[in-house]
Structure formats: structure tokens, C-alpha cells
Design a protein that fits this description.
By secondary structure, the chain is mostly helical. The chain has 26 helices and no strands.
Length: about 500
């Protein structure tokens, strides 16, 4: 009985179609935005400055405001840029936003590689942030709209898989450039971001627009192009049901002239809550403890510089592998199952790490964690990364990108990305100080949030697998809690008969 209260069923059913090479190639190219995002996360140069802070507390080895400013400047720029990206994505399409993001990435990589002082480094990082703002706003939407509904989870999780590949590549490059004599390895690390940035910028020139975006424009020639494109994407001429849903949904979107203001209406309350809650919870899992400062953490445990970097490579491999497994499982098991199972796994792992550090690692930098206990911590961290990799990592991007009605989709995605960047910035700015003051307790702090978010998913997130995006409002109307906000609205949103003549052309 409890299961029937907290879950919903798919009453819409999937559309006709199959996975085609066209949609696979388009989505792979678009997902290059995730590679750059992951690379920018992983390239933060923490290990090179550890040598200067070897005589302080194990938990306060390194507390540089310059590093946190460098790391966080990307997310501040991304937060601002995503709201501009919302207007571009709505008016000119997902492809245009991806193209702008690729160009900004290229500029930032060039400036970072050629930097002669820290100000040029930070400016390059800001340009990378603009690229991240545009790419993270448009790429998840692009993937969700292009994918067949029954495989949408796998395609969209490819974004997080690409983020993992980017972060792993950055860790490998960090490991290699550490060996370069002359101290210029950091310049190579930053400049190599131009490789995936070039692929994204050039690839975006050849990407097709999504049928959803074409229909949303409402012009007769765009509707004709959307029908032809949809047949090509789905590999079947029988796309009438999907076109009908798109046209009906876009008829509603024509009345939405101010999507950010409309997003605050009562009927969109479930999506608004999720747009805030899911990215917030994704950041307070504590993943940035690993993603930003894994070398620092492992160095604190007594591993040398090379060993700590190698350990972060191992965790990167674990995370990327688990995200790939999530791609295979998400459309079979559903979003809720992976969210809850991954949350419980992360909770247990963080409790183990916190307990070991609290019991065996004090403040004195001369008393390091023994190799046996360091191995236990490494295994627990890998288990945590695996849990994140198949749950809150990819699903934190997937679920927001698929739940918004098309009339507020660009606005909703921007809110979700902005909240993600805001709390990424907050964690990046405060983590080192929190580690210094809370010591091992920081892992219990994040574990508490993991417990809260797992309970939140169980109670308030309906299952969305197999549900076409343009029929997604039904899952809220069937949910025990959210239906009170959307009751009586389905009839209003179903209007749009004036488009029937166009639809049948």
C-alpha cells in the first residue's frame, strides 16, 4: 500500500520509434559539454601548493583563499550565465546555446593556458564558467528532448558519464604534469581544455535542433521541419502521437510570455520545489569533498603527493564506471530506486569514513593515518563515489531536465542549474574552513544531509521513467501530495485546439 501512495504509473505509454544512429551521434556530440564541465572541476590545482603547509593540523593543511576564489569563480560566472542562456535557449533553440557555450569554453581555455598572472587565470576561469552556464542549461534539455522516452534516462545520464570522463582526464593530466620540470605543467593542464571545447563548438555547427524547440517556435515551416526531423530521429514515419503531444503542449506555451514569473504559479509548484531541492541535495551529498580536494584528503591520510593523485584517479574510475552502470539500469529500475539505493550506500560510506578519521587521525601532522586504516578509508570513499555515480550524480541532471512543461522548460532548467552552481560555490568556499574546524565531523554533517534527501525522494518524488516529457504533468496529478497543486489544471493545459489544423497539415 505504501508503494502505491508514493509512486505513480505511466498511463501515457511510449511513442513509436527506436534508437537510431542519428540520435546517438547527436547526443554524443552534445554531451561533450559534460566532458568540459568535468575537466574544469578536476583541473583545480590543489596538489601543487600542499608543500607549503606541512607543519599545521592534519585537518588544516591547506586553507588558501586564492585557491577557493580560483575554483569558485567558474560557478559564480555559470550561475549568472545560465539565466541569459534561458532566454537564448527559448528564443533560438538548444543548439544555439550549446554553440555559445563551446565558444566561451574555447576562449577560457586559451586565456588560461596563456595566463601571465593570477588575474588572467581567474578571467579565463570566468569565461569557462560562462561556457558551463550555457552548456549545462542546454545540453541536458537537448539530450532529454532528443531521446526516445523509454531510453531517456540512459541518454541523459550520458551527460554525467561525460562529466566523469572529463574529471578523470583532468586527474590523469594532473598526475602527468606534476612530473614536468620547470613548473609549467599547470599551463598545459589548463590549455588542454581547448580539445573538448573545440569538439563541442565545431560539433554544435552540425547538430540538429530538437523537434520540441522547432514546434515551440510555432511557425508553419518549423512544424514541417519538426515532423521530418522526428521521423529521422525515431526511425519511423509513424510519429503522429508524439507530434500531437508536442503541438498541444506548445499551444499552451504560447500564452507564457514571462516564463520565470509563470514558473511561480501554483500549478508548477511541484516542479519548482524539485528545481530547488534536487540540485541543492546533489551538492550537500559531500561529493565536492572528493571532486575538488581528493588529493588533499588522501595526503592528509598520509599518502604522498603522487599516491594521493593516483588515489583520486582510482575514485574517478569508480565514479565513471558506476555512472555507466546507471545508464544501463535507470530505464529498467527507475529513478526512485537508484536515488534511494545510492543514498543509503553513500550514507553508510560517509559514516565509515567519519568514524575512522575521528578514531585514528588527530590534529598532529606527525601522526598520520596508518596504511591499513587509509586503505579502509579509500575503499569507503570508492563505495561513496560509486553510490553517487549511479544515483545523485546523473539523476541530479536527469530528473530536472525531464519534469518541466515546455512553456517553462528553459526557465525551470535555468533555476535548477543556478541552484546547483550557487551551492557548488558555497561548498567550494567553505569546505576547507569546515574541514579545519569540524575535522572528521564534516563527514557526519554531509551524512545527515544524505539521510534527509533519501527520505525526501521516498516521500515526494514520483517515478518518471517511460513517461513522455509532454505528458509529464500526469505524474504530479497522481501523486499523494502534489495532486493538490495541480488538480483542475489538466483541462486548462490541454487546450490548444486552434493548432489542430496546423498539426494535420
Amino acid at each position: 500500500m505504501a508503494a502505491s501512495i508514493f509512486t505513480t504509473t505511466n498511463s501515457g505509454g511510449p511513442y513509436n520509434g527506436r534508437i537510431t544512429s542519428f540520435v546517438v551521434l547527436s547526443c554524443v556530440m552534445a554531451a561533450m559539454g559534460g566532458v568540459i564541465f568535468g575537466y574544469d572541476i578536476g583541473i583545480s590545482d590543489v596538489y601543487a601548493r600542499m608543500r607549503a603547509d606541512s607543519d599545521v593540523s592534519n585537518y588544516c593543511k591547506f586553507d588558501s583563499q586564492l585557491l577557493t576564489t580560483f575554483t569558485s569563480s567558474l560557478y559564480v560566472a555559470g550561475l549568472v550565465a545560465t539565466f541569459f542562456a534561458a532566454s537564448v535557449t527559448r528564443a533560438f533553440g538548444r543548439r544555439t546555446s550549446i554553440l555559445i557555450g563551446g565558444a566561451a569554453f574555447l576562449s577560457g581555455a586559451a586565456l588560461g593556458g596563456a595566463a601571465v598572472d593570477v588575474y588572467m587565470l581567474i578571467l579565463g576561469r570566468v569565461l569557462l564558467g560562462v561556457g558551463v552556464g550555457f552548456a549545462n542549461q542546454s545540453v541536458p534539455l537537448y539530450l532529454s528532448e532528443m531521446a526516445p522516452p523509454q531510453y531517456r534516462g540512459a541518454f541523459n545520464n550520458g551527460f554525467q558519464f561525460s562529466v566523469g570522463i572529463g574529471a578523470l582526464s583532468a586527474n590523469l593530466i594532473n598526475y602527468g604534469t606534476e612530473k614536468i620540470s620547470g613548473g609549467w605543467g599547470w599551463r598545459l593542464s589548463l590549455a588542454l581544455a581547448a580539445v573538448p571545447a573545440s569538439a563541442l563548438a565545431l560539433g554544435a555547427l552540425f547538430l540538429s535542433e530538437t523537434p520540441n524547440s522547432l514546434v515551440q517556435r510555432g511557425r508553419e515551416d518549423d512544424l514541417h521541419r519538426a515532423r521530418i526531423l522526428l521521423r529521422k530521429i525515431r526511425g519511423t514515419p509513424d510519429v503522429g502521437a508524439e507530434i500531437e503531444d508536442l503541438v498541444s503542449a506548445c499551444a499552451t506555451s504560447k500564452s507564457s510570455r514571462r516564463p520565470f514569473r509563470d514558473f511561480m504559479r501554483r500549478r508548477y509548484r511541484p516542479q519548482l520545489v524539485m528545481a530547488f531541492a534536487i540540485p541543492f541535495f546533489q551538492q550537500v551529498t559531500g561529493i565536492n569533498v572528493i571532486a575538488f580536494y581528493a588529493p588533499l584528503l588522501f595526503r592528509t591520510m598520509g599518502l604522498g603527493e603522487s599516491a594521493s593523485l593516483m588515489s583520486s584517479i582510482v575514485t574517478g574510475l569508480v565514479g565513471t564506471t558506476s555512472t555507466f552502470l546507471s545508464m544501463l539500469a535507470v530505464d529498467r529500475l527507475g529513478r526512485r530506486t537508484l536515488f534511494i539505493a545510492g543514498g543509503l550506500q553513500m550514507l553508510a560510506s560517509q559514516l565509515v569514513v567519519g568514524a575512522v578519521l575521528a578514531a585514528h587521525l588527530g590534529d598532529d601532522p606527525r601522526e598520520l593515518l596508518g596504511k591499513g586504516w587509509a586503505f579502509v578509508v579509500l575503499i569507503a570513499v570508492c563505495a561513496y563515489v560509486a553510490g553517487f555515480g549511479w544515483s545523485w550524480g546523473p539523476l541530479g541532471w536527469l530528473v530536472p531536465s525531464e519534469i518541466f512543461p515546455i512553456e517553462v522548460r528553459s526557465a525551470g532548467q535555468s533555476v535548477s542549474v543556478a541552484v546547483n552552481f550557487l551551492f557548488t560555490f558555497a561548498v567550494a568556499q567553505t569546505f576547507l574552513a569546515m574541514l579545519c574546524h569540524m575535522k572528521a565531523g564534516i563527514f557526519f554533517f554531509f551524512a545527515g544531509w544524505v539521510a534527509v534527501m533519501t527520505g525526501f525522494v521516498y516521500l515526494f518524488l514520483p517515478e518518471t521513467k517511460d513517461v513522455p516529457m509532454e505528458r509529464m504533468e500526469r505524474v504530479w496529478g497522481e501523486h499523494w501530495f502534489w495532486r493538490r497543486f495541480v488538480e483542475g489544471e489538466e483541462e486548462e493545459s490541454g487546450s490548444g485546439g486552434g493548432m489542430d489544423g496546423v498539426m494535420k497539415q
